Amino acid sequence: LLFVLAAFVLASCAEIEDRPSEPLPDQTVLTPGDGPLFDSGNDLILPADYREWPFIGSGLGLTYEDEPAAGQLPAFTNVFVNPSSYTSFMDTGAWPDGSVFVLEFRSSHTDARPNQAGRFQGDLQFLEIEVKDARFEDGWAFYGFGPGSDLAERAAPLAGDAVAPCIECHTEHTAVERTFVQFYPTLLEVAREKGTLKPGF
Ligand code: HEC
68 in ligand 1 pocket by Cβ < 6 Å? Predict the structure, then answer.
């Protein structure tokens, strides 16, 4: 029996060592379908197709943390949500567990023909993600994927001092749950209709 056990333990060790150091991005799925893909527990894999997801809103020069760098026009923001969560929100005005939000910051430009005075979007500057996930203490997880010039393929959830401002602002100033639905006009209408806006909105 001991021999069998030893052989089993050895085999398991070999199996662990055989695992590729870069695990494939289909290991754990919180929700079936288009929900978040996790790796090593809570590390989030950047959704490869988020640009094909519903686009829920855009901002221009919404400054709430740092002032834009001198000489730069204020950035555009674009927000996308995974399709099944979007459909669910349209029915209920609330977000299901496993909702994934992608926030892009893009540079702002004026200088191209035939534009006279308006602005258009340029390069990806930064990307952040937020996931509604009941496994987290607050029920939501926040991720930074870094500058667009060096975007990470996966990211660990922000923790401690890095996540505190995300949680604070996304708790105090958001219209629906932890999301800024007040800036997403078609969703705002739905939330109003379904009565899911926080008091004060
Ligand atoms: C001081 C306020 C503030 C802080 C701090 C903040 N955010 Fe936001 N966040 C916003 C606003 C305002 C929007 C709406 C953006 C838009 O409409 O373009 C937003 C939108 C988002 C969205 C899109 C989904 C949603 O909630 O509406 C994500 C994802 C996001 N933020 C991630 C983060 C992460 C990650 C952090 C921490 C590193 C963070 N935010 C910190 C104000 C904040």
Answer: no
Ligand 1 atom 26 nearest Cα: 179
Q: What is the pLDDT of residue 67?
A: 59
157 pocket-lining for ligand 1 (C-beta < 6 Å): no
Mean pLDDT of successive 10-residue segments in the chain (201 residues)?
46 38 48 85 96 97 67 89 98 98 96 90 97 94 96 97 96 97 98 97 92
160/192 Cα distance (integer angstroms) = 34
Nearest to 101 by CA among 166, 197, 24: 166
- Asked whether 167 lines ligand 1 (CB < 6 A), one says no
Pocket test for ligand 1, best of 130, 181, 201 (most atoms within 8 A of CB): 130
Q: How many CB atoms lie under 10 A from the CB of residue 98?
A: 21
Q: How many residues does the chain have?
A: 201
**Cα-to-centroid distance, 166 and ligand 1 (Å):** 7
Q: 85-94 long-range CB contacts below 8 Å, 24 or more apart?
A: 85/35, 85/132, 86/53, 86/54, 86/56, 89/187, 89/190, 90/190, 92/194, 92/196, 93/176, 93/190, 93/191, 93/193, 93/194, 93/195, 93/196, 94/176, 94/177, 94/194, 94/196
